[in-house]
Amino acid sequence: xxxxxxxxxxxxxxxxxxxxxxxxxxxxxxxxxxxxIVAPPGGETAWAGASEAETVAPAEINPALAAPxxxxxxxxxxxxxxxxxxxxxxxxxxxxxxxxxxxxxxxxQLVFGxxxxxxxxxxxxxxxxxxxxWRVAAGNSQGCGPWSEVWRFTTEGQPLxxxxxxxxxxxxTNVSRTxxxRWHxxxxxxxxVVQVAKTDGFREFLVIREVAETQVxxxxxxxxxxxWWRVRAFKVGAVxxxxxxWRFTTEGxxxxxxxxxxxxxxxxxxARRPVLRWAPVANAKHYRVQVARDxxxxxxxxxxxxxxxxxxxxxxxxxxxxWWRVRAxxxxIEGPWSEVWNFTTEGIALGRPVxxxxxxxxxxxxxxxxxRWHxxxxxxxxWVQVARNDGFTVEVIARRVTTTSLALSGLPAxxxxWWRVRAxxxxGEGPWSExxxxxxxxE
Length: 443
Description:
This protein is mainly β. It has 4 domains: 9-155, Immunoglobulins (Immunoglobulin-like); 165-250, Immunoglobulins (Immunoglobulin-like); 260-345, Immunoglobulin-like (Sandwich); 355-440, Immunoglobulins (Immunoglobulin-like). It is 1% helix and 44% strand. It has 1 helix and 39 strands. The protein has one helix at residues 14-19, and strands at residues 22-26, 34-38, 44-46, 70-72, 77-80, 85-88, 96-102, 110-116, 120-122, 131-140, 143-147, 151-155, 165-167, 172-175, 180-183, 191-197, 205-211, 215-217, 226-235, 238-239, 246-250, 260-262, 267-270, 275-278, 286-292, 300-306, 310-312, 321-330, 333-337, 341-345, 355-357, 362-365, 370-373, 381-387, 397-401, 405-407, 416-425, 428-429, 436-440. Strands 3, 14, 16, 17, 19, 20 and 21 form a 7-stranded mixed beta sheet that branches. Strands 5, 7, 8, 10, 11 and 12 form a 6-stranded mixed beta sheet that branches. Strands 23, 25, 26, 28, 29 and 30 form a 6-stranded mixed beta sheet that branches. The longest helix has 6 residues, at 14-19.
């Protein structure tokens, strides 16, 4: 086991070290066993939501641990050794520290990231003339504390210059959907990484490829779409900045909004397992369908992706109004939503239960009360919620019953509770009853 606090250059895979994109994630908590997350991979990742190495953060912050204070190298230092020793202050209760060194401020392009022992750590063979960011978090068996401030330093030596892009020219339109990207060679560079993305923020990648040449032909891109691309040069021990990002727009028409066909907008008495239909969209490979209980689609009842231009929905509740919309998709690209249409299913909707006891606002109620309500026609059963607040978010009791009563037991003394009931049947649920409250007797 290496206990020197150093990472020999030979221990890094050559390509990953040169790319500066090796991240080690923690599988258990923030300091358990580790497994490598590498991005971008050698070769190509196309249409799979590829992204750069993501920052690995603990699921929960351990409030018992403070953030370390960074010591050296000083913030903003230049001409720093390519094998620097990073130092920070000790944190009481820490058994290890999580160190991250990255090429970017967002810590998505990690050069180094893993738990380490002690309050200093030496890295080796960092890229020359490169500005790096670093931060540290204290950790123990309960998790990691907050990150330290982010400091930066620049290593000694001259970096590789950024590549200069050639073709397609910046801003050009009607470009082939399988274009060849070209750029000027960078003296001394052994390979390049090309990123192709949906936006100029380069967070949603379409293609990431590593090549030795100064050109790359892309796989089939979506039609009528603006694409962003950039290139970075590498050699052993050195990495260039990214080129200036360029954009181009592919030939063809972008995905249009589908035209809805059936059921007609505003239709009533619609079957409870309706078939939704819409007109096809040129170049679409799939369609995303949403059916909701509200026009803002905050209460989505059905969300599905289908290859064709119709879909049969599962059994919906009777006498209920629904809103629906569709959008066309091509791989990871999706077009605009269609108009929003609505329909109402056949039958009579389940009614709202009427509560009966304990009376609304009752005090001195038994700690083992029985809740009762009036039956709802066609109900197969009822959902009952009991909570400590009228928003039903604090210590909620949720039960499903087939009768019109629910016996509770062991409630705390002198405590106010709110309760409500809703009916359910095959295919759906009715609305919630009015919320009533009662207070248990003090003992």
